[in-house]
Amino acid sequence: MSLPLSSILVTLSLGLGFVSLPLPVQYLPVNAIAQVNSPSTAQDFLDQGVKQLQQGDLEAAINNFNEAIRLNPNYAQAYGNRGIVYSRLQQYEKALADYNQYIRFNPNSAEAYYNRATLYDKLGDYQKAIADYDRAIRLNPNFSQAISNREIAYNKLGKTQQTSTQSTPTSRSETQSSNSFSEPHQLPSSPSINPPPITRIRIPIGIRVLKPISFVPPMLVLNPTAVDYYNHGLEYQKAEQYEEALAHYNRAIHLNPKLAPAYLNRGAVYDELKQYQKALADYNKAIQLNPRESKNYNNRGVTYTKLKQYQKALADYNKALRLNPKLALAYSNRGAVYNELKEYLKASNDCNKAINLDPKLSGAYFNRGFAYAKLGNPQKALTDYNKAIDLNPYDADTYLQRGLIYADLKDAQNAIADLQDAADLYEQQGDTAKAQQILDVLNQLPQ
To answer: From 229's CA, which of 154, 371, 386, 424 has a CA 20 to 30 Å away?
Structure first.
């Protein structure tokens, strides 16, 4: 078969951008929770218990909540959080008793009814679960977790009734069938920084589902702090539920306007949603609060890169590297900017540094491969694209670039295979324009 190489190379090179800046999810601890060393009051024991609950030390948490209740038998927060621990330990009757006690003290807490509803669900009492979700939603009409879980409970109730009576199940939607609730969510002891993903998580070829059908929201700790909301926001961000992530970061910032990582991660969400000016505003605030944090500059550089403000991006990557010379992401991202500026030797040098620091950083191989291709070394480019795909088999851009290299090497079979894979991945990710452009070229090839 004759492959019109010039058609593929010219059409796709002019129509599709090459530079990709994938940033893997990384976690960098930030000390944001005060340490309580010598508890003496009920409040001290509660604080210690919450900290141990967050760290997963459940028996120690119970001991501290018990002591808080001994010192103050009317301490609602101690009952509520001890109930969460009992639920984690699958001691559901004890958990139920504590939730009931908390609700007696705080009958207007939507989170309390939500937590008790998840407990009723574990016990198979779906009618009571639905009743508690109803109460939570009445108290907080925007409580999306309760709305979603109530729908699941209705589905379960319908199936239970169908099994016992052989009657028609409830008419409510069953698109989230037989989902089980997770154990009460344990929060990290401190918030973490999540650099903004430049490309979304990719779908492997042949696999159409990106993540589980139903994401069960984490259980809220009673009386959540800014750090609690921050960490819940991070969970939603990881699940690509960006509106929920924004809501939680907003709440964290409302409670603690000086929580710099919340601005940083909210900026990452805005970046993902292509709301770049809002992203820049949040990164600026994060820098104002913590001017020595290299990730703040790296992330702002990412947004400047997307806005094609390359000199500003370079300045931010340079600053990030002055603060942290071992930040591999910043080298890779600066290399991508050098590629855009056609300074390919600088790009390859930066990517070399990134790979030396982090040999599993797929974006650095992608960016170096692109530089090698432009420097007239297709074999080195091919080697780098192969490595990038080994590390991240979900990235459509890499299949496209490798396909173009194969076309340049007159390897028609592999070129067509990679271009088809790239088109499939773009289609699955919702980038139909790129997918269609590749398919149009492929459809013009002789069969």
So the answer is: 154
Distance separating alpha carbons of residues 166 and 172, to the nearest angstrom: 17
Paired with 219 in beta bridges are none
User: Quick one: fold of 42-141?
Assistant: 1.25.40
Nearest partner of 245 among 217, 286, 225, judged by Cα: 217
DSSP structural state of residue 91: -
129-139: pLDDT as tens digits: 999 999 989 98
Determine how many CB atoms are found less than 10 A away from the CB of residue 107: 11
Give DSSP secondary structure letters for 377-415.
-HHHHHHHHHHHHHH-TT-HHHHHHHHHHHHHTT-HHHH
| 8 A C-beta contact, residue 284 and residue 300 | yes
The domain segmentation of the chain, as residue ranges, is: 42-141, 223-290, 293-393, 395-446
Torsion region of 277: left, alpha or beta (phi above 0 gives left; psi -120 to 50 gives alpha): alpha
Mean pLDDT of the 295-317 span: 94
Q: Which CATH architecture has domain 223-290?
A: Alpha Horseshoe (1.25)
Domain 223-290 identical in fold to domain 293-393: yes
What distance in Å separates the CA atoms of residue 295 and residue 149, rounded to the nearest whole number? Answer: 36
* 293-393 CATH fold: 1.25.40
Q: How many residues does the chain have?
A: 447
Q: Which amino acid is residue 387, in one-letter code?
A: K
CA 438 – CA 417 distance, rounded (Å): 12
CB atoms within 10 A of CB 432: 12
The closest of 396, 398, 325 to 367, measured between CA atoms, is 398
C-alpha torsion sign, points 367, 370, 375, 378: positive
Radius of gyration, alpha carbons of the chain: 26
Q: Which residues contact 76 (CB under 8 A, 6 or more apart)?
A: 101, 102, 105, 106
- Going by the DSSP 8-state scheme, the letter that residue 40 receives in this structure is -
The phi-psi region of residue 29 (left if phi > 0; otherwise alpha if psi is between -120 and 50; otherwise beta) is: beta
Average pLDDT over residues 215-239: 72
Rounded Cα–Cα distance for residues 35 and 37 (Å): 6
Instruction: Specify the pTM.
Output: 0.60
